[in-house]
Design a protein that fits this description.
Number of strands: 10
Radius of gyration: 15 Å
Number of domains: 1
Strand content: over 45%
Largest sheet: 10 strands, antiparallel
Number of helices: 1
Order of helices and strands: HEEEEEEEEEE
Shape: globular
Length: about 160
């Protein structure tokens, strides 16, 4: 199971690096989007901006608490959706190899290493040419049996063209 987890990490890193290499020549220094992933764990609010959208066999919206894509910080989250995103309420089921709707979470400080939610919900509330928006909850258990619940989650990310 650990080997499969590291394969998923490698694939995600490759996809993210491909998107980073396709950057604009515009160095205006102003934010290019108003995308975010927000959630709460045990009363602590997390708010990640400038969400990276990646696509392989699914679409992922990736957020982190680092300063840049090269410095991702110690906490990352990914929301996984199927390639054909539709508005609706969807249960998270089955961890890394479950259904089409998943949440993965990493946090060095909390002892989570790319762990997938075993349960929760992703509600896609809006899909347009500009953004995909929704809400989510997720319960995640680390390999050392620590369990956290992400509540009041919301996201706004750019779709793949």
């Amino acid at each position: 199971m650990k080997k499969q987890k590291y394969i998923l990490i490698a694939v995600l890193a490759l996809v993210v690096s491909l998107f980073q290499s396709c950057s604009s020549d515009d160095d205006s220094g102003t934010p290019t989007s108003d995308t975010y992933i927000r959630f709460t764990i045990d009363g602590t609010d997390y708010d990640f901006g400038d969400i990276i959208t990646a696509e392989s066999q699914s679409i992922t919206f990736n957020g982190n608490n680092g300063e840049t894509i090269q410095d991702v910080g110690d906490t990352q989250i990914s929301i996984w959706l199927p390639l054909e995103i539709v508005v609706g309420d969807n249960d998270i089921d089955g961890g890394a190899f479950g259904g089409d709707y998943k949440v993965s979470f990493s946090s060095e400080a909390m002892g989570f290493d790319f762990d997938f939610a075993e349960s929760g919900n992703i509600n896609v509330t809006s899909v347009s040419d500009d953004y995909v928006e929704g809400t989510f909850t997720a319960t995640i258990t680390s390999e050392s049996d620590e369990t956290i619940t992400l509540v009041d989650g919301e996201f706004k990310a750019m779709p793949i063209d």
